[in-house]
Design a protein that fits this description.
Layout (H helix, E strand, L loop, with lengths): L6 E7 L16 E2 L2 E2 L2 H9 L4 E6 L3 H11 L4 E4 L6 H7 L1 H4 L4 E6 L7 H14 L3 E7 L8 E5 L2 E5 L6 H4 L3 E10 H7 L17 H7 L4 E5 L12 H21 L3 E2 L6 E2 L4 E2 L4 E2 L4 E3 L3 E2 L4 E2 L4 E3 L2 E2 L4 E2 L4 E3 L2 E2 L4 E2 L4 E3 L3 E2 L4 E4 L2 E3 L2 E2 L4 E4 L2 E3 L1 E3 L4 E2 L4 E3 L9 E3 L4 E2 L4 E3 L2 E3 L4 E2 L4 E2 L8 E2 L11 H18 L1
Parallel strand pairs: 1-4, 1-6, 4-5, 7-11, 12-15, 13-16, 14-17, 15-18, 16-19, 17-20, 18-21, 19-22, 20-23, 21-24, 22-25, 23-26, 24-27, 25-28, 26-29, 27-30, 28-31, 29-32, 32-35, 33-36, 34-37, 35-38, 36-39, 37-40, 39-41
Antiparallel strand pairs: 2-3, 6-10, 7-10, 8-9
Amino acid sequence: MSKPEGTGALVLAAGKGTRMKSPVPKVLHPILEEPLLRYPLAALAEAGVSRKAVVVGHGAEEVTRYLRQNWPEVVPVLQEQQKGTGHAVQAAGEWWKAVETLVVLPGDAPLLNPEAVEALLKRHSESGNAATFMTFRIENPFGYGRVIRNGAHCRIVEEKDASPDELRVNEVNSGIYVFSTAALSRFIDRLENRNAQGEFYLPDVLPLFSESGLRVEPLLWEKAKDLFGINDPLQLAEANREMRDRILRKHLQNGIKMMDPQTTWIGPDVLLQPDVWIEPDVQIWGKTEIQSGAVIGSHSILRNALIHEKARLVAFCCVTDSEIGPGAKVGPFACIRDDSFLAGGSYAGKFVEVKNSFIGENSKVPHLSYMGDAKIGKRTNIGAGTITCNYDGSRKNPTRIGDDCFIGSDTMLVAPVVLNDECFTAAGSTITEDVPAGALAVARARQKNIEGWARRRKAVSRKEEEGWSRS
């Protein structure tokens, strides 16, 4: 066997999370639309810990799928029976014995930051400890293991096993440890489950270290919120708000303008350049990127969107998996989705939906229109109420509209169809055939005016009313 080297991290994510009252695995519950598990993994990565494994158990298939899709470098380790944190570390022994130093932490600690991880690793290394663990003080320590200090020695007592005096202690275990794997290998299999839960507790390994003369040190972390765990929906909601506030503070410090931060929600992977303006009641999620000078209007929701410089979303806009070009304008009440692209200077206005479509430079879809599976050239105007009829009952068909076209109001474009450059359509037309360049397409019934119709209709109505009254 090769000599263990380097630092690895083991994230414990096998628990059911009974108090969440949900079939969803606890570590997949969302904080700002990202699973809880994403946050400790990101903190480890930012702290320079590249070798990572996650112990999975309840909902193992779902958690493993998430890891493979989003963290392919992370190794999932199955804990078939959930018999406690010590048992979880035992189950992953084959993996962590390849590293020299092991960080162990819970998967439900979304507020953990890389600075805390770095501080713990630094103390462990500088002090020559066999084990170092992080603690914090909390006014209401309910649910946490208490840290009981006795001179140079300390131990951790789980709440269900604590005496009344021990329950009054407000220094608690965060569940975040650093171990020398040489020491951990000696003692991890000596854990016993003589406790109220009948489980193998990882903290019980610490007294075994101390009794053998190995150095164990607690590191008290002053920023208690960084170490909070998630056990129920109330704590999940509190963590959402805390993470939101941290992210907003960082963006504000970097030059982002927000009219009302209390109604603004921004995900952890969003990129904002300086001098973006965000109006109240805005949500920005996923891998969205917004460039300098852009304005995001009130009640807009962006998800995996790219908003170029000086683009403007007026209000009540929904942009998903799409791109808004430089200086383009969207809304109000517009939906841009499914790989759509609005080029520079274009406009999608009131009550417009654009799906999987390209709107060319300086082209306009001002109001009450649907553009689906369409490609529109430059400087083209789409009249109000125009619809691309792209679905024939079995497949989606494309519409192509060239440069400098004028599409009259209430035009139905029955795809597949091509309208070439500089063509026109008459208002109310149903276009089923290609339109040549420069042509006017008229596809509607001829208007017929029936003289005197209204007068005769009124006479008939009066006779009908008289007949009803006599009856």
